[in-house]
Amino acid sequence: MCLFLIALPSISALKGSWLLDLVVNFQLTYALLTFFLLIVTFWLVRSLFLISFCLYVVFTIVNFASLLPAVPNLTGHSVSDDVYVFQGNLSYYNADMDALYDFLDKKNADIYILFEVNDTQREAFGKLANGRPNLGYAQIEGLPAGMGIISKYPIVKRHIHQFEGKSAVIIELELLIDHQLVRFYALHPPSPRTKESWQTRNQLLAELKNLVKHHPQQITWITGDINTSPWSYYFPRFDFLTPCIEQVGYYTSWPHSKAVAWLANVVRIAIDHCFMSEHMTILEFKTVTIPNSDHLGLEYRFILNQSR
């Protein structure tokens, strides 16, 4: 059974199955459980051990090989100043908003990408922005699907794409960073708790791919709490963008809980992501605890590369 679970990402039939698409995300958990059971098999049923172990190694390599950290290659490029980003899901019902916004303010990030921003905290969001370009404080646009963006860099253009379904929104901005235009997207599709919300999530990820494919030559950066992991059939793949998890190596971001930390560490998966075109390179990356949120935040620095 455990070998079947770690083989799930290789099964094309997952495309139409809501339940299997949910189950497939917990590959690290399955890998650890299978390893433990293999030890038991070695002692109790040695005749099954060798073939089971070989299958385990093959599927584990297939599942995790692309998630090993890459070495940044800056040869032959001029390099911009690094950009410090904080990206995270704050939780709409965060129990201590004062502590949360104090935490965010102390980060002093160049760009904040925030999900599940409670609209009753608009003034706190505005105080965090402190006059910097942002999307979220102005009443006319509000916080689309609970998303708020704060940037020290100019926002040259903005477009909020609305699609059918709850939280079916994609923010599209053009940021002027180091004299270069960066096309930026942010999205937070619904959690796939029901088959209907799963279908809405999948459709929004498909709409994202349609938007992005029209600008293959432009510097492009996508961020989101996309509610799926790299092992899902529906995890977005792009011809000219690389998931950050394939640059920095495997990490996890949800669920986070101090109360049952040991359990959260075992079942936690990566559903908070970024994607970058070849013009961008991550120099530093780490996950951080957000006060009273069930997500870990992503904290990273990147540079823009420009061929000489």
TrEMBL record:
<protein>
    <recommendedName>
        <fullName>Endonuclease/exonuclease/phosphatase domain-containing protein</fullName>
    </recommendedName>
</protein>
<keyword id="KW-0472">Membrane</keyword>
<dbReference type="Pfam" id="PF03372">
    <property type="entry name" value="Exo_endo_phos"/>
</dbReference>
<keyword id="KW-1133">Transmembrane helix</keyword>
<feature type="transmembrane region" description="Helical">
    <location>
        <begin position="23"/>
        <end position="45"/>
    </location>
</feature>
<dbReference type="GO" id="GO:0003824">
    <property type="term" value="F:catalytic activity"/>
</dbReference>
<feature type="domain" description="Endonuclease/exonuclease/phosphatase">
    <location>
        <begin position="91"/>
        <end position="295"/>
    </location>
</feature>
<keyword id="KW-0812">Transmembrane</keyword>
<feature type="transmembrane region" description="Helical">
    <location>
        <begin position="50"/>
        <end position="71"/>
    </location>
</feature>
<dbReference type="InterPro" id="IPR005135">
    <property type="entry name" value="Endo/exonuclease/phosphatase"/>
</dbReference>
<dbReference type="InterPro" id="IPR036691">
    <property type="entry name" value="Endo/exonu/phosph_ase_sf"/>
</dbReference>
